Structures are given as structure tokens and as C-alpha cells.
Amino acid sequence: MSYLRALYKTYEENEAEVGEVFTKETKDKKVIEYTLLPISHTTQTAHIEMIINQDGTLYDADVIEKINTILPFTEKSGSRAGKNYVPHVLHDKLMYVAGDYVAYTGEEDKRDAYLYYLEQLSEWCNSPYSHPHVQTIYNYVKKGTLIQDLVERSILHVTEADLLRSKWDTKQDGDKPPIFQILAGAQESAFVRFNVHVPGEVIDDVWKNKDIYESYSHYYETKLMERDICYVSGEQLPVTVRHPNKLRNSGDKAKLISANDSTGFTYRGRFKDSFEAANISYDVSQKAHNALKWLIERQGKQVDGRIFLVWGSKNPSMPYVADDLSNEVFTDFNKMLAQRDAMLAQKADTKKVLAEQHSQIISGIKKNMNIEEHDDEKVYILTVDAATPGRLAVLYYRDLGIKDYFDKLLTWHENCSWRHTRKKENEWVQYFGSPSFYTIAHTAYGPRPNDKVVKGVMERMLPCVLDGRKIPIDIVRSAIVRASNPQFYDQSWEWEQVLGVACSLVRKHYVDKDKREDYSVALDTENTERDYLFGRLLAIADVLERTALKKEQSTKKEKSDIRTTNALRYLNAFSQHPERTWLTIQKNLQPYQMKLGESGIYYSMLIDEIGSQFKFNEFNDVPLTGKYLLGYYSQRHALYTKKEKNVEES
Predict the structure, then answer these.
(1) What single-letter DSSP state applies at residue 456?
(2) What are the φ/ψ torsions at residue 500 (nearest 5 degrees)?
(3) How many CA atoms within 13 Å lie on the side-chain side of 549?
(4) For the segment 179-221, what is each residue's pLDDT rounded down to a tens digit?
(5) Measured between alpha carbons, how far is residue 437 from residues 400, 419, 462 in Å?
(6) DSSP labels for 610-627?
(7) Which of helix, strand or coil describes residue 93?
(8) Alpha-carbon distance 369 to 348, whole Å?
């Protein structure tokens, strides 16, 4: 129940946001709306909007785009399915709101649907919690001419027998009218929402009117009779057995809490009835589920139906554990990691400096997020997925103090940090830090793994950050294999990204294994580990040949792409048989060394220097570990940095 209490508290802390409609842009550039729903309200996609005059007559009607509409509902209508004809209270499908539905469809078995709707709406209008706009809508729908009015305005279309058309034949009837363009099924499935027209006044739409939200919430409280102890709040409150759905999207039927099987094995043998298993009050259930829906729409990461969510109790916006450091929240931390590598290169006393920086980063992030005064705030991490179409399972849940959360997050980014390269909108973007879980999945199992693989990797990586577990070795090995095969990639930047991610994972793996923190982008010339030295040799061979090829290209009039170097072509073979493959690479280097002249001598001296650091019995064909990638990257980075510095000085 702890996650429900966390969601309940989140709703209470953010009650000022209730009913406020916000927008955000999705990855495919679509703008969507979301809101923290009031109690006893849900959302539904509407197809037709009808505007009613204050005297109960129809002012206008039109087909609208598929937009989610906030509407009041009951416990029963919120979980209706199949032939369970239970109406919502205000906005609903044609079969409920149209008194002439049977006359235009011939479906006699649905005659009572309208009567139930009218009775329910009448009860609200006659209560002390009625609202003038709701009364106006009731005065219109009780006339029972809704479909007739829509047909007269050519919103709905009928056959010669005055029955609603089930389909539209474009060959015989021409272009589809709007209602057939937005509906997947027949016209009978259209959902109608109502609005009120007040001449000369600008008023809130009925589905956005907070006064109507509040009046219905108070009204529905009077309908809740049975009270019992709530397992979440510990208070005697009205209870419910029907809990909301539509948590991940408007069409989601999966529920977190459900017990509709009193004869099967849902709780039989352990509890007498469902209340003993989970007795949740209506108020807590509504607030917790509405908070979860709001958080998912606001900031949830969804992969193949699985939701990954991180939020704060008082400040919902929290840097997500699976993101990389290109996030603006970590701008300062990104810079500090780059400074750390520079200090390591200079052999500075980094432990004291980094300890101070670590404290500064936490304080800086908390200040930027306006949570400096809330040291007692909790951070919640939740993962949910649907085991079946009707059941939503909590796969992972943790709650941490905010300082503890940032400590774990920043420790992860420190130990798994590397210099990363990616291409974004035709520009090269570089940052220091750990890669996102999504990027790790694409590196280890890419370049285009399916969503099931991605969500599996994300789930397995969460405990590595929050519980201090080691990165699964199969993910590390897979990343090393892909980084050792640059021929897999059509674009050089794709391989560069994979190489950076592989170095991050290898670094984290050996930080955990060897308890060392000095593996970094900065070149460590005192590191005499066999794999690291072999990686350095490969980097020198790569840079030497590439430099010679560029020099040769500059003398030609026609420019063309520089071909792949021998070092990269033999990269995979080198990782498996380093001694034998190095002899082949070195033979192929000789003509390029001659082309470079004095520069070639410099590279030859570096090769000799590294070769002298090998122990005699370690220069062999034993396959290399992932450490060779660290040596390769660091040596190559050092050579290119030195070259850029020389160019600037000249």
C-alpha cells in the first residue's frame, strides 16, 4: 500500500493543480493536453460537441477532433463493459443522451439506457449541488430530439428508412463527411459532449469549469454510504470496490486494484472477501489513481506499455534515473566531470576536490529546482506494466529521501561517466557522464532493438543505480562486441556513440570489480595493464594512418571520403588475437609512416614507448577484455587534443 499512499500524498500536495489543463509536445511533435483530474471525474474522447442555449434549445453542433474531455462519472459507469449499460452523468454516447436513439437505430434492447441517464442527471439537478449549466443541458436532453437535431444539421446521416447509416461508400456517395472520418465504427458509437452558450459573456467550457467539478464531487460524496477502515489512510471512510482504469492512456482498461472473481483463485483460500485483501476508501483511490494518471501523462517514460516513473512528493519534477547528462538539470555536473578528467591528467589531488564538487552539485540542483528548503521531501520510483489487458502490475517501487536519491544518482553518473558523442539535428553534441538506459539498450542490442528488449534493459538497469548492483555482465559484453565491430554501422557517428557507451559500461564494471576510480577519458600513461596498453597501440595506429590519408587527400584536387583505417578494419580480430593482428597492422603502417616524415617518427616513438611497458609474457594472443577500449579511446583523444592545441598555437 506504500505506493498508493505516496500517490495519495502527491495529489494532496498538488491539489492547486486540480482541473488545470497543461500541454506538452510529444516526440512526434504532437501537442497533447493533460490535467490532474478532480475526484469522481474521468476522461473520454469526444466526437461531437453540442452547444445549448440557456433556454434549453440547441445553439450549434459540430464534429470535433478526437480530444479528451473531462467528465463526471460514477463507480459503475467508470468500469462498464460489454452489455453493462450504465451511463455517465453528463457527457456520454448517443445511446445514453439521445431520447430518439431507438427510433433511429431500431435497437430496442437499449431503450432503458436513456431513461437511466435522464434519471441520474435529474437527481443531480434536483440536489443542493446543482449547477445552472448542468440544468440547462438537462432541459435540452429531456426533450429527446438529440439525433433528430444532429441529422437536420447534417452532423449525422441517415438512410432512406430514416435509420443511422452504419457505413459510407465513397464510390457511390462521394467524399466521407466529418463524422465518418473520425469514427472507426458506426455513427452509433459517437460520443457527445455538451457546452452552454451565454450571449455576450465569455465563460469556461463545461468540461473545464472548476465550479461544476466541485459541485459534482460534493454531490457524489452524498451517494457513498458504506464506511470501513481504509488500509492506506487508516481512517473510517466510504469504501469502494471499483477502482479507476485509463491510467496509461484513454483506452487503457488495465486496473491496479481489481477483485471481481469471487469463485476463482483471486483471493479464495486466503481471504473471506476482497475487502480483507485490499480495503481502499473511495477518496484515497480516486486521488491516488488520478495522481498516477497525471504523472504518467506529465513525465512518464513509456516503452511497449511499461511505464517508468520518478517524481517528488512536493515537487513532481525530478531528474529521471534513466536519463543521460545532456539534461539541463545536470549542466553543472557535466562541466565538472570534464574538469575532473583534466585534473586526472595533471595528477591533481582529485579526491578532496571531487568531494567538494559533489556537495556543490547536489546543492545546485536542489536550488535550481526550488527544493532547497525541502530536505524532508521524498522521491518515488515506480514501474508498472500490464500482465494482462485488465490487470496492471507494480514491477518496481522504491522511495528515497531526496538527498539519498541525488547521492545515488550522482554516484552512478560519476562511476559510469565518459565522454559521449552523438549527432543531433546535423550537429555533433558532446557531454560527459553516463548514457541513458535507452542508449545503453540501443548500444548493446541495437541499432534498432524492439521495445520489449529496451524495456527489459531499462528494468534491469534500475537496481544498478538505486541499489548499487553491478551492471549485468551480458549487457557489458554485448556492448564490447558491438564496439569492436565498427563495420556494423553505416555512419561513423553511430559507432562513435556506441564506443562511448561501451567505455562507460566497461569503466563502471571495473570500478565495481577493481574498486578503482581512475579509469577516465584522460590518458593514464602510468597504467601498465596489458589490455590498456594494447588499446593505446591500436589508437596510435588508427590516428597515424588517418593523418597520412588526410595529408594525401589534401594534395588532390578532388575530395572524397577517407576510407576506414586498417586499425578499425582489424578491430574485432585485434580484440581476439592482439599479438598476431598487431603484427599485421604494424606492417601495413610502414608506408604511412614514410608519408608523414617527421610526424611519422613521433608516432613510431610512441609505439616503442608503449611497447617497452609490456611485461615480456603479456605480449601474447590471449583475448582482450573491455579495458582495451578505454586505452584506445583515451590515447586517441589525447592525440587529437594535442593536434588541435598545436594548430591553435601555430
Answers:
(1) H
(2) -65, -45
(3) 15
(4) 999 998 889 999 999 999 999 888 999 999 999 999 999 999 9
(5) 20, 16, 9
(6) HHTTS-GGGSS-PPP-TH
(7) strand
(8) 32
DSSP 172: H
Strand partners, 350: none
Report the amino acid identity of residue 254. Answer: A
What distance in Å separates the CA atoms of residue 101 and residue 404, rounded to the nearest whole number? 60
- Contact predicate 47/184, CB 8 Å: no
β-pair type (92-93, 191-197): antiparallel
Separation in Å, CA 647 to CA 166, 179, 640, 650: 74, 67, 11, 5
DSSP of 355-411: HHHHHHHHHHHHHHTT-TT-TT-EEEEEEEEEEETTEEEEEEEEEEEHHHHHHHHHH
Which residue from 208, 211, 217 is spatially nearest to 22, judged by alpha carbons?
Answer: 208
For 472, the grid coordinates are: 549485468
The dihedrals phi and psi of 138, each to the nearest 5 degrees, come to: -60, -40
pLDDT in tens, 409-460: 888 887 888 888 777 767 777 777 788 898 899 899 977 888 899 999 999 9
Which H helix or E strand runs over 306?
strand 306-312
Omega cis (within 30) before 447: yes
HSE (side-chain half, CA atoms, 13 Å) at 513: 13
